[in-house]
Specification:
Helices cover 48% and strands 24% of the residues. The chain is α/β, with parallel strands linked by helices. The chain has one domain: STAS domain (Transcription Regulator spoIIAA, 2-Layer Sandwich), CATH 3.30.750.24. Helix 3 links the parallel strand 5 and strand 6. Helix 1 packs parallel to helix 2.
Length: 109
């Protein structure tokens, strides 16, 4: 496992409340722990609303402001559709699985 990567596994509905549940830990991972990549594994996310998408954009901006990167994997069909309808699929780097992310990262090394 790459020690420059922090992996988060949010569950349930991704909305403002879910965002608040792990925002501080995620920001701490890139500021204090000096992680270069925050990987959000959405395997456990069943639904995301527009407020959740807005919160995710805020999180992305915060992570980038600290010189780190945020990527997503395992987004379900509903979440993927939300990304596509809002063109956020062009903003967020999304991988089908964690394995795909790590294979891509390994190929770039």
């Amino acid at each position: 496992m790459d020690n420059k990567i922090a992996i988060f596994h949010p569950t349930g509905i991704f909305d403002n409340i879910k965002y608040l549940e792990f925002r501080d830990d995620l920001i701490k991972s890139v500021t204090e722990e000096k992680k270069e990549i925050a990987l959000l594994d959405f395997t456990g996310i069943t639904f995301m609303d527009s407020a959740g998408l807005g919160s995710l954009v805020l999180l992305l901006k915060a992570v980038r402001s600290h010189g780190a990167k945020m990527v997503l994997c395992h987004v379900n069909e509903q979440v993927q559709m939300l990304f596509e309808l809002t063109n956020m699929d062009k903003v967020f780097e999304i991988f089908p699985t964690q394995a795909d992310f790590f294979a891509h990262r390994g190929a770039k090394s």
